[in-house]
Amino acid sequence: MKLDVTVAAPTDGHTEMCTALSWVSSNELFTCSDDKQLLRWTQEGELGSKMADTEGFITSISWFPDVGKRSANMFACACTDGTWRIWTLQGQNAREEKKIPAHTGAVISVKWNWDGSALISAGEDGELKVWSRSGNLRSSLCSAGTAVYCFVWGPDNDTVLYTAGKTLNMKSHQGTGRKALSWNAHDGIIMCCDWNRINDLIVSGGEDCIYKVWDAYGRQLFQSQPNASVITSISWCPNGECFAVGAFNSLRLCDKTGWSYSREQPQSGSIMEIAWTSDGTQLAGAGGNGSVVFAQLVQRKLEWENFEVTLIEPKLINVQDASIDQYERLEFPRERVVEMALGWGHLVVATATQCFIYGVNNWNTPHIFDLRATPSLISLADGYFLTMDPTHGVIIYNYEGRQVSNPRFNNLQPEFLNRHTVALSKDVVAILDRTDSKTVRCFDVATGKALSTNVTHKTEIVQIALNQSDVPLSERRLALIDRNRDLYLTPVVPQPGIFRGVYKLQTQVDSMAWNDSSDMLAAIADGRMICWYYPNVVFVDRDLLPSTTIEKDGSEFGKVPQVSTFYGSRLTVRKADGALVTTSVSCYASMLYRYIGESRWEESVRLCRFVKDDKLWGCLAVMSIQNRKLETAEIALAALTEVDKLEFILHIKNIPSEEGRNAELALYRRCPDEAEAILLQARPPLTYRAIKMNIRLFRWGRALELAVKSRSHVDTVLGYRQKYLDQFGKKETDKRFLQYTESVEIDWEAIQAKKQQEKDDERARSGNLSSSGK
User: Fold this and answer.
1) Contact yes or no for 406/393 (Cβ under 8 A)
2) Cβ proximity of 270 and 298 under 8 Å
3) How far is Cα 460 from Cα 473, in angstroms, rounded to an integer?
C-alpha cells in the first residue's frame, strides 16, 4: 500500500502558508491560509471556488459533524486574534455568523465533539475551554501553563487528549470519562497528536523528530527512528488501519502498529495539517509554502488461494491468477474504489454508490447493485457477505447482490466497529456491543433476528472471530480476545450435553485466526505459534486438549505479530516491521476434517495409522466421541494409550439403550444435569439409571429426591449411602436420610433383584426398538 500524491501549487490557490483544511461529506475540501482566503477544492485536487475573504489569520478549522443523513453547513475556525468564529455556507459562499473572544493570544485549535454538542478551543495561553454550540462558555477544562498545540476528543466523546510541552494529558470534561492521566511522551515539544475511535490507539509527533504509537493507558507500543525534520502533523485514517505523518517535504503512510508503508516527498514545505476523507481512501495536507497536497491510497493487495488482487489506481484493479499466469484489469470509470474483499470464490468491490460482485471464474459480468451509503467494511463468508456503514449499520447480502437481512439493536454504533469487532459465518453474524464491550450480540444471517442468547464475558472484549467450517449452528464457535490478551472459546448457542461457559484457551495472545475451511484455530502467543487442530475438544474432553494442539517457536515473528490469513495448512503472519512471514501446519489435519465431513471413518483411521501422529489420533478420538462413533473412538484412544477413557468408552458400548449411551456421553463431557435429563426424558423414563448415576457422582440428595418422587429404589439409595458411610467410618447426619432409614428396610437381595429387573427391562425394550427399526 502506498500514496499516490499530487500537489496543487501555490499559483493554483493560496499565495501564503496553508494553515488549516477540512473535508466535508460531499468530498469537497475547504482550506484556509495566511492570505486570508477560504477556498473550495474538488476531490480530484482542482480548485473549485473562493468561498470568502477572512478578517483574521485562521489557524484551525473544524466542520460541524453530520447528523444522520443531513449534511452540516456550519463550521468553526480559530484565529490568531484570540477569537474563534462560526461560519455557515450560503450557496457557493461562506458567511461569518458569530465572533467569540476566547483566549489571550492566538487560538491554536478548535474541534467539535463527535455529536456536535460541544466545542473545545485551545490557545497560546495554555487554556482549554469548553463552549456550547451557540458559542457560550461552559467551563475551563484546564490550564496547562504552556501553549497547547494540539488536542483531540476521545472515542467516548468525553475524554480529551491534549499536549502540554513534552507531555500528553487526558482529562474528562464532564467527569464521566476516563481518569485523568499524564505522561512524558517526547524529548521535545509535542506538536501533534490523534486518537482513533475504532482501535483506541493514540499517535503523537514532536520537535524531537519522532512519532510514537500509544495505547489508551499511556503505554508505548511503537517509536520511530528520528526523522530529518520536525513532525508537524499526524492523523489517523478513519478505519484505524493506518495513519499519516507530515513533516518538511515529507508525507509518510504507516500501519497502525507503526511500521511504514511508504514515504513520499512532495515539494510542499512543512505539512501543517492532515485531513482524511470519511471513507479513508484519500487525504489532504496543508503545505507550508501555500500548496495543498492530495494523496490517494493505492497498491492495496488481497490474496486468496492462487489469486492476487491489487488496486493499482483509484479506479483500476489488477487481478492475477498465478496458477495459469493470467491477468485481468477491472476498471471503474464512474467512481474510485472505496473498499474491497476477496475470498470464498468472489471479489467484492465497493465504490461510493455501487457494489460489484465478481466470481473468480468470470471477471467479465459482475453482479452490480446500488449502495445506500458508502461502506467502511466488507467481510466475506461462505454464501454471504456483509457491508457496514455509519448510517445503516450492518447489511448482509448474498453473492447475487440480493439483500438478505439488516441486523440491528439499540446503540449499534457502527462508526466504532471494524473487522476485529464484527464476525460473519454462513449462519451467524456476531457484533460487539460497544456500549457494553463485555457483550457480543449474535444474529441469524438469513433473518437478521437476534439469537436466543448473547455471549457475555467478565472483561472488555477487543477481538472476535467465528469458525468458518460447514457445521450446524449447534457447533458454531466464537473465539474472543479480551483486554488482558486472553483467548477464550465459547459456543454461539448453548447446547444441552456440552459445557456452556467461556473456556480460556491461552494467555498473552497477540492475534488469532480461524482456518478458512476447517475448525483449526491458530494464534501467536507469548513468542509461540499455537494451532489447535480441534478446539471443540474443550466441550468434549478438555483432558485431550494437549493431544490436539501443536506449538512452534515464534521468535522469527518478532514482537507484536499479527496473523493475516490462515488458508489450508498455510499461516501468514505480519511482523512488526511490516514483513510477511509464512509458516505451516500439518496438511493431514485438513485431510482428516474432509474425511470426517464425508463420514469416511475407516479412511480416517487408516490416515492416522499411516501418519503415526499422536496429535492426529487425539483429533480423531474427540471427533468420533462428538459424533458418537464409539468404535472409532475406541481405536483412537487405544492408540493414545488413554486406558481410563478407553475403559469408559467400552462401558458405554455395553449399555443397551441409546438414551443410556447418550447420557453417559453427556456425563463424559462433564454435564451431569443434561445426562440426567436425557435419562428422565426417555420413554419410559430410565429412572433407575438416573438414580444410579447420581449415586456414582455422590449426589446423594438428588438421588434420594428422584427415588422418592418415583416411589422406587429408595432402599437402593439408602443401601449405597450406608455402604459409603461405613467405608469411611462415619455416621449419618442428614435428616432426610435419617427419616427414611427408620421407615425403609434395606434388603440387599431385594435391591439386587430390582437392579437386575431394571437392566433386563431396558435390554428388552432396546431389543424391541431395534427389531421394529429393522
Assistant:
1) yes
2) no
3) 25
- What is the CB neighbour count within 10 angstroms for residue 269? 19
- Count Cβ atoms within 10 A of the Cβ of residue 262 and give its class: 0-12 exposed, 13-18 middle, 19 or more buried: middle
Collapsing DSSP to helix, strand or coil, 188 comes out as: coil
Sorted by sequence, the CB contacts under 8 Å of residue 206 that are 6+ apart come out as: 166, 185, 186, 187, 188, 189, 190, 191, 192, 230, 231
Torsion of CA 588, 589, 595, 601, to 10 degrees: 100
CA distance 39 to 448: 45
Q: Are 464 and 479 in contact (CB under 8 A)?
A: yes
C-alpha cell at 326: 493470467
Contacts with 579 (C-beta within 8 Å, 6 or more apart), sequence order: none
pLDDT band at 705 (very low <50, low <70, confident <90, very high): very high
As a whole number of Å, the CA-based R_g of the chain is 33
CB neighbourhood size of 332 (10 A):
16
Q: Which one, of 288, 284, 269, 35, lies nearest residue 13 by Cα? A: 35
| Residue 696, CB-side half-sphere exposure with 13 Å CA sphere | 12
DSSP per-residue letters across 90-126: ETTEEEEEEEEE--SS-EEEEEE-TTSS-EEEEETTS
Residues whose CB is less than 8 angstroms from the CB of residue 644 and which lie 6 or more positions away in sequence, other chains included: none
**Set of cell numbers at residue 118:** 460541544
Which pTM does this prediction carry? 0.85
Report d(CA 40, CA 92) in Å as an integer: 9
- The residues pairing with 719 across neighbouring beta strands, listed in sequence order, are none
How many Cα atoms occupy the beta-carbon half-sphere of 379 within 13 Å? 25
Q: How far apart are CA 725 and CA 718, in angstroms?
A: 11
* Residues sharing a CB contact under 8 Å with residue 156, sequence separation 6 or more, in sequence order: 177, 178
For 162-216, what is each residue's pLDDT tens digit? 999 999 999 988 877 678 899 999 999 999 999 998 888 999 999 999 999 999 9
Q: What angle do CA 743, 745, 751 make, to 5 degrees?
A: 135
Retrieve residue 38's grid coordinates: 477560504
The torsion of the CA quartet 417, 418, 421, 424, rounded to 10 degrees, works out to: 110
Q: Which amino acid appears at position 627 of this protein?
A: N
Residue type present at position 591 = M
Neighbours of 587 (CB within 10 A): 11
- In this model, does residue 773 exceed pLDDT 70? no
Long-range contacts (CB closer than 8 Å, 24 or more residues apart) made by 368-372: 368/401, 369/397, 369/401
Q: How many CA atoms lie within 13 A of 60 on its CB side?
A: 26
The reported pLDDT for the residue numbered 60 is 93
pLDDT at 497 over 60: no
Is the link from the previous residue into 684 a cis peptide, with omega within 30 of 0?
yes
User: 307-313 and 316-321 as β-strands: parallel, antiparallel, unpaired?
Assistant: antiparallel
**Closest to 395 (Cα-Cα) out of 413, 419, 415, 379:** 379
- 564-592 confidence digits (pLDDT tens): 999 988 999 998 888 889 999 999 999 99
Point out which residues pair with 380 in neighbouring strands: 385
Find the angle CA(558)-CA(561)-CA(562) to the nearest 5 degrees: 165
Alpha-carbon distances of 46 from 12, 30, 248, 293, 720, rounded to whole Å? 9, 12, 23, 11, 91
Residue 250 DSSP SS3:
strand
Considering the chain, what is the average pLDDT of its residues?
A: 90
Are 678 and 687 in contact by the 8 Å Cβ rule? The answer is no
Strand partners, 441: 431
Question: Residue 165: left if φ>0, alpha if ψ -120 to 50, beta else—which one?
Answer: left
Number of H helices, E strands in the chain: 12, 55
CA–CA gap between residue 120 and residue 109 (Å, rounded): 8
Is residue 18 within 8 A of residue 292, CB to CB? The reply is yes
CA gap 112, 120 in Å, rounded: 7
Backbone angles phi, psi at 750, to 5 degrees: -65, -40
